[in-house]
Design brief:
The chain has 359 residues and is of the alpha+beta class. The chain is 38% helix and 25% strand. The chain has a 5-stranded mixed sheet, sandwiched between helices. It has a 5-stranded mixed sheet with strand order 13-12-11-17-18, sandwiched between helices.
């Protein structure tokens, strides 16, 4: 990459960021400050021109409530970019928010972005280019399981093996890491979104009521569980009766919601088992001592750690603030870049494009 005096000057003032570009939420970690942005990965655009009008929390609040000339959408699907231009606008907005307290009026940060372990080269290129289009002067990618492990405080560059299960909105990342690399990994496009869809389908089938994704997510957070609770809970689901077409509310129990989520949880369990079967015996011995680290928004589902522990016969532990582990891990790379550079994904083939970015 050719030397640019402006980039050299900005290196003293611009921020170093770690970004979890998630299907449901985007989190931005600033070195020395922690997570400063945690907002939904939603954008409201004008239908005719596709011009972004609202981004983040404001856009999420408008989902299902937009006028005819607007469209609320999520440009990240299953952990990868489905709409390049809208994703660039999303990143530009979040990078700008992170720089609100910076002394540099025009953000030109260095960024490390977490991507699914099973990402293709085309999908990697889309994330890399979107970061540059959003104003980053340098962009690097890191596999989400590695980032999650770093964010959880796991010494990933040690020889001993560790397993990370990161359940996000669009993907579930299961990986065994050792000596700074991934020994074996599975990327499953079944996660929080599929849990919401399972709840929607259950309520429709049992009560003939159609609820929206926001209602399903609220039920999941309030009474969703993967393991029997000491005291089962009740919540009210509000939607439209499919026979009368009128609004209707029905009371649902945590037992019913556990039944609704059972299929998704079994799929995640099967993926973890498959990953364990591929791991060398020496790694399994390490896991019997160290257990499995459960991260991501899915780790907040009540009793999921207990369910996994019982089924897999291994200790399962949840780090502090599991939702932000990928962002914190991506940001941790900047604390010692020389040490962690080997953990980054190979983007050398993309570098020529970086030289064409205007200062």
């Amino acid at each position: 990459m050719r030397w640019n005096p402006l980039d050299w000057l900005l290196s003293f003032f611009a921020l170093d960021l770690g970004i979890d570009l998630g299907t449901t939420n985007t989190l931005v970690y600033v070195r020395g400050k922690g997570v400063v942005v945690n907002e939904p990965s939603w954008v409201v655009v004008e239908k005719r021109t596709r011009k972004p009008l609202y981004v983040g929390a404001q856009a999420r609040a408008m989902a299902g409530r937009t006028p005819a000339n607007m469209l609320a959408l999520r440009p990240i699907r299953d952990g990868v970019i489905s709409d390049f231009e809208i994703t660039a606008a999303l990143l530009d907005y979040f990078i700008g928010k992170a720089h609100e307290q910076s002394v540099v009026p025009i953000p030109r940060p260095r960024v490390v972005i977490g991507v699914p372990a099973g990402v293709t080269e085309v999908e990697m290129r889309a994330v890399y280019d979107a970061a540059l289009a959003a104003g980053a002067r340098e962009a690097y990618l890191i596999a989400e399981p590695i980032a999650a492990a770093l964010g959880a405080g796991i010494p990933v560059d040690e020889v001993q093996g560790n397993m990370v299960v990161d359940i996000g909105g669009g993907t579930t990342e299961v990986a065994v890491v050792s000596a700074g690399g991934v020994v074996t990994a599975r990327s499953l496009r079944v996660a929080g979104d599929e849990m919401d869809e399972a709840i929607i389908e259950y309520v429709r089938a049992k009560y003939n009521i159609l609820i929206g994704p926001a209602m399903a997510e609220e039920l999941k957070k309030e009474i969703g569980s993967a393991y029997p609770l000491r005291e089962e809970k009740l919540a009210v689901a509000r939607g439209r009766n499919l026979v009368t077409g009128l609004p209707e509310a029905v009371e649902i129990s945590s037992v019913e919601l556990r039944e609704a989520l059972s299929g998704v949880i079994e799929t995640i369990l099967a993926t973890i088992r498959d990953t364990l079967e591929e791991a060398p015996p020496e790694i399994l011995a390490d896991l019997m001592e160290r257990g499995i680290c459960l991260t991501g928004g899915g780790a907040l589902l009540q009793g999921l750690d207990q369910r996994l522990s019982e089924e897999l016969r291994l200790k399962v532990w949840v780090p502090e603030d599991p939702l932000s582990t990928v962002a914190r891990g991506a940001g941790a790379v900047w604390n010692d870049f020389r040490r962690y550079e080997k953990l980054l994904m190979d983007t050398q083939a993309f570098l020529p494009m970086a030289t064409t970015v205007s200062p």
